[in-house]
Specification:
Order of helices and strands: EHEHHEHEHEHHEEHEHEHEEEE
CATH architecture of the largest domain: 3-Layer(aba) Sandwich
Strand content: 15-25%
Radius of gyration: 19 Å
EC number: 3.4.17.13
Protein name: Muramoyltetrapeptide carboxypeptidase
Strand order of the largest sheet: 6-13-12-7-8-9-10
GO molecular function: muramoyltetrapeptide carboxypeptidase activity
Pfam families: Peptidase_S66, Peptidase_S66C
Number of domains: 2
Shape: globular
Structural class: alpha/beta
Number of strands: 13
Oligomer: single chain
Family: Belongs to the peptidase S66 family.
Number of helices: 10
Largest sheet: 7 strands, mixed
C-alpha cells in the first residue's frame, strides 16, 4: 500500500483537452489517500496552452516560494509550451529551495525541456514519469506503470529488467539522462542542454517517422553529444508508422546504423515513453547498464527518495 502523498499539479505546457481523464485521475489519487493540490491547473486555458506564459511561468517559479513542499510535483500533460518559458525561470531560487529535498518532479514529453534545463542549471534530478491525464487518468490504468512509478520514487536503488534485441553485450556506467527525443534536440546549442560526459542516454518519442528519428539522432551525433555517451537506451516510439515506400527502413534499421556507422551501443525495447505501460526514469541519477544474451538490466541510484 502506497503511503499518502501531497501531489501538486503543474501545467507548463498544453491545455488539457481530456478534462474527463484529468478529473478521473484526481478522483483516483484522492480515493487512494493522496492530497491533490492546485487542481485549477487542469482547467486553465489560453489559446492552445494551459494558461498564458506568465501564469505557467509563475506556477514553476512559485515552487521556490512554497512554505511547505509537496512530495510530488506532477505535470498534467505535455503538448507544447515549456520552451517558451525556459529563459524566464528563476533557476537560482529553485536550486536553493529544491536541492537536497526529497521532492519528485514528475512528467515527460514536452516536460522534458524543463527537466533537462533544471538538470543543466541546477543539478536537480527529476523523474521522467507518467502524468496526470494520460496515465493516471486512463480509462483502464496500467498497474505496470503505477507499480514502477511508486517503486522509482521510494527506492534508493531501483532496478529494471527487460528483454532486448540488441547485439551489444557488456556493462556500462554513467549518469542517466534523456527523455523525449524532439525536446532534447530542441535544446542543442542552448545553455539548457546538460553537458553529460560518459552518460547513459534514454530516448523516446511519439508521432515521429523513422526518418525523423534518424534525422534527430544525426543532429545529436554531428554536434558530438552521442559520442560522449556510454550507451543509448531506446524506449517506445509510438505511432512511428512506415509504408511500402520505406522498403524496410524502420526503427531497427535506424538503431543498427548508429551501431555500425558510429560504433555506438544502442540497447532497445525498454517499455518507456508514450505507451500505456511505461517505466519511470530519474533523470540525472547514476546508473549501471548490464546486457547479456538479450537480457538488459538497469540499476539506478542517487535520486531523490520519498519516505515509504
Amino acid at each position: 500500500m502506497t503511503a499518502s502523498r501531497r501531489i501538486r499539479l503543474i501545467a507548463p505546457s498544453g491545455y488539457c483537452v481530456n478534462q474527463a481523464a484529468a478529473q478521473r485521475a484526481i478522483a483516483r489519487l484522492s480515493e487512494a489517500g493522496h492530497q491533490v493540490e492546485n487542481p485549477q491547473a487542469v482547467t486553465r486555458r489560453f489559446q492552445r496552452f494551459a494558461g498564458d506564459d506568465q501564469q505557467r511561468l509563475d506556477e514553476i517559479n512559485q515552487l521556490a516560494e512554497l512554505e511547505s513542499l509537496p512530495d510530488i510535483v506532477m505535470a498534467v500533460r505535455g503538448g507544447y509550451g515549456v520552451g517558451r518559458l525556459l529563459e524566464s525561470i528563476d533557476y537560482p531560487a529553485l536550486q536553493r529551495r529544491l536541492q537536497h529535498q526529497p521532492l519528485a518532479l514528475c512528467g515527460h514529453s514536452d516536460f522534458t525541456a524543463l527537466q533537462l534545463a533544471l538538470l543543466a542549471e541546477c543539478g536537480l534530478i527529476s523523474f521522467s514519469s507518467p502524468m496526470l491525464a494520460g496515465n493516471f487518468g486512463a480509462e483502464i490504468p496500467s498497474s505496470f506503470t503505477e507499480q514502477h512509478f511508486w517503486q522509482a520514487l521510494t527506492s534508493e536503488t531501483y532496478t529494471l529488467n527487460w528483454q532486448t534485441l540488441t547485439p551489444d553485450q557488456g556493462t556500462w556506467q554513467g549518469q542517466l539522462w534523456g527523455g523525449n527525443l524532439a525536446m532534447i534536440c530542441s535544446l542543442i546549442g542552448t545553455r539548457w542542454m546538460p553537458q553529460i560526459e560518459n552518460g547513459i542516454l534514454a530516448i523516446e518519442d511519439i508521432n515521429e517517422h523513422p526518418f525523423r528519428v534518424e534525422r534527430m539522432l544525426n543532429q545529436l551525433q554531428q554536434c558530438g553529444i552521442l559520442a560522449r555517451q556510454q550507451a543509448i537506451i531506446t524506449g517506445s516510439f509510438s505511432k512511428s508508422t512506415v509504408s511500402d515506400y520505406d522498403q524496410g527502413f524502420d526503427l531497427d534499421s535506424v538503431w543498427q546504423r548508429l551501431r555500425e556507422q558510429y560504433g555506438l551501443v544502442v540497447v532497445s525495447d525498454l517499455a518507456y515513453g508514450h505507451e500505456a505501460d511505461t517505466v519511470t526514469l530519474p533523470l540525472g541519477a547514476q546508473a549501471q547498464l548490464n546486457v547479456s544474451e538479450g537480457n538488459a538490466q538497469l540499476v539506478i541510484s542517487g535520486h531523490p527518495v520519498l519516505r515509504r
